[in-house]
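Appendix C reproduces, verbatim, an entry submitted by the partner laboratory led by Prof. M.T., so that reviewers can inspect both the input and the predicted structure.
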Amino acid sequence: MKKLFLTFPILLLFLSACGSQYDPEIEQVIELENEHLSDLGDDVNLTRNTTNFYVYADGGYVEIRYDNAAGEEQQAVYEETDTDTYERHDGMPEEAENLTREYEEENR
Protein backbone atom coordinates (compact mmCIF):
# COMPACT_ATOMS: atom_id res chain seq x y z
CA MET A 1 0.00 0.00 0.00
CA LYS A 2 2.88 2.36 0.79
CA LYS A 3 4.35 1.73 -2.64
CA LEU A 4 1.06 2.68 -4.24
CA PHE A 5 1.04 6.03 -2.44
CA LEU A 6 4.61 6.70 -3.56
CA THR A 7 4.09 5.55 -7.13
CA PHE A 8 1.00 7.66 -7.78
CA PRO A 9 2.64 11.11 -7.28
CA ILE A 10 5.64 10.06 -9.36
CA LEU A 11 3.33 8.92 -12.16
CA LEU A 12 1.45 12.23 -12.08
CA LEU A 13 4.71 14.16 -12.28
CA PHE A 14 5.82 12.10 -15.25
CA LEU A 15 2.52 12.53 -17.11
CA SER A 16 2.44 16.29 -16.56
CA ALA A 17 5.91 16.59 -18.08
CA CYS A 18 4.90 14.83 -21.32
CA GLY A 19 3.68 17.90 -23.20
CA SER A 20 4.92 19.16 -26.52
CA GLN A 21 7.29 22.07 -26.93
CA TYR A 22 4.70 23.42 -29.37
CA ASP A 23 1.77 23.42 -26.93
CA PRO A 24 1.34 27.24 -26.93
CA GLU A 25 1.31 27.39 -30.73
CA ILE A 26 -1.15 24.50 -31.02
CA GLU A 27 -3.48 25.99 -28.41
CA GLN A 28 -3.42 29.35 -30.22
CA VAL A 29 -4.20 27.70 -33.57
CA ILE A 30 -7.17 25.80 -32.05
CA GLU A 31 -8.54 29.09 -30.72
CA LEU A 32 -8.02 30.87 -34.06
CA GLU A 33 -9.64 28.07 -36.07
CA ASN A 34 -12.64 27.99 -33.71
CA GLU A 35 -13.00 31.77 -34.20
CA HIS A 36 -12.78 31.30 -37.98
CA LEU A 37 -15.47 28.60 -37.91
CA SER A 38 -17.66 30.74 -35.68
CA ASP A 39 -17.33 33.65 -38.14
CA LEU A 40 -18.53 31.27 -40.88
CA GLY A 41 -21.56 30.34 -38.78
CA ASP A 42 -20.36 26.81 -38.03
CA ASP A 43 -21.31 25.65 -34.57
CA VAL A 44 -18.17 23.57 -34.04
CA ASN A 45 -15.84 23.49 -31.08
CA LEU A 46 -12.55 21.92 -32.06
CA THR A 47 -10.45 20.41 -29.32
CA ARG A 48 -6.98 18.99 -29.27
CA ASN A 49 -8.45 15.49 -28.93
CA THR A 50 -10.36 15.71 -32.23
CA THR A 51 -7.72 17.39 -34.36
CA ASN A 52 -4.41 16.54 -36.02
CA PHE A 53 -1.50 18.98 -35.95
CA TYR A 54 1.70 19.22 -37.96
CA VAL A 55 4.35 21.79 -37.07
CA TYR A 56 7.01 23.12 -39.46
CA ALA A 57 9.88 25.64 -39.23
CA ASP A 58 10.14 25.70 -35.44
CA GLY A 59 6.48 26.66 -35.05
CA GLY A 60 6.49 29.07 -37.99
CA TYR A 61 3.75 27.03 -39.64
CA VAL A 62 1.10 24.94 -37.90
CA GLU A 63 -1.16 22.77 -40.02
CA ILE A 64 -4.49 21.72 -38.53
CA ARG A 65 -6.69 18.91 -39.89
CA TYR A 66 -10.09 17.87 -38.63
CA ASP A 67 -13.40 16.46 -39.84
CA ASN A 68 -16.35 18.80 -40.31
CA ALA A 69 -19.92 17.91 -39.35
CA ALA A 70 -20.36 16.04 -42.66
CA GLY A 71 -17.26 13.94 -41.98
CA GLU A 72 -15.15 15.67 -44.63
CA GLU A 73 -11.53 16.45 -43.80
CA GLN A 74 -10.74 20.13 -43.45
CA GLN A 75 -7.25 21.62 -43.52
CA ALA A 76 -5.82 25.00 -42.68
CA VAL A 77 -2.28 26.22 -42.22
CA TYR A 78 -1.44 29.01 -39.84
CA GLU A 79 1.69 31.03 -40.55
CA GLU A 80 3.38 32.92 -37.73
CA THR A 81 3.60 36.67 -38.31
CA ASP A 82 6.00 39.25 -36.91
CA THR A 83 3.49 40.10 -34.18
CA ASP A 84 3.53 36.59 -32.60
CA THR A 85 0.12 35.72 -33.96
CA TYR A 86 -0.87 33.55 -36.90
CA GLU A 87 -2.34 34.22 -40.34
CA ARG A 88 -4.70 31.57 -41.74
CA HIS A 89 -4.22 29.93 -45.15
CA ASP A 90 -6.55 27.36 -46.72
CA GLY A 91 -3.56 25.26 -47.79
CA MET A 92 0.18 25.16 -47.38
CA PRO A 93 1.75 28.41 -48.62
CA GLU A 94 4.04 27.88 -51.60
CA GLU A 95 7.17 28.98 -49.70
CA ALA A 96 6.50 26.28 -47.08
CA GLU A 97 5.60 23.35 -49.33
CA ASN A 98 9.02 21.67 -49.06
CA LEU A 99 9.50 22.07 -45.32
CA THR A 100 9.99 18.99 -43.17
CA ARG A 101 7.59 18.28 -40.32
CA GLU A 102 9.24 18.87 -36.98
CA TYR A 103 6.31 17.65 -34.92
CA GLU A 104 3.09 15.77 -35.56
CA GLU A 105 0.21 14.98 -33.29
CA GLU A 106 -2.58 12.78 -34.61
CA ASN A 107 -5.62 12.62 -32.34
CA ARG A 108 -8.49 11.66 -34.62
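Residues 5 and 73 are 44 Å apart (CA to CA). Additional entries are available on request from the coordinating office.
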